[in-house]
Task: inverse folding
């Protein structure tokens, strides 16, 4: 299965995209992720280089998602929710609180 540029994206990239989309400002997103604004700016530049497209339009009052940015932010948010749910499921399974439905495989 070829996943194209997505193979180069890291979990921190997805977190940053989702945080900027939610906060609307790079500085607020950086603070949410406990990184500096310059580090967040460098990371966003790296993501846009990997994707090959601008993800946000920069304005004086914040950042607005481009069409490609909206698609990426939507998927990033979904993947982060899935990873959170995966961690919860694994912890519950380790504690014996839940049985995994093997028929779902």
Result:
């Amino acid at each position: 299965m070829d996943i194209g540029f997505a193979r180069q994206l890291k979990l921190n990239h997805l977190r940053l995209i989702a945080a900027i989309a939610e906060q609307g400002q790079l500085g607020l997103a950086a603070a949410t992720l406990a990184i500096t604004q310059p580090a967040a700016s460098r990371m966003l530049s790296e993501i846009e280089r990997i994707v090959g497209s601008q993800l946000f339009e920069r304005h004086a009052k914040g950042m607005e998602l481009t069409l490609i940015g909206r698609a990426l932010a939507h998927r990033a948010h979904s993947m982060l929710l899935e990873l959170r749910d995966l961690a919860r499921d694994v912890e519950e399974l380790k504690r014996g609180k839940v049985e995994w439905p093997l028929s779902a495989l």
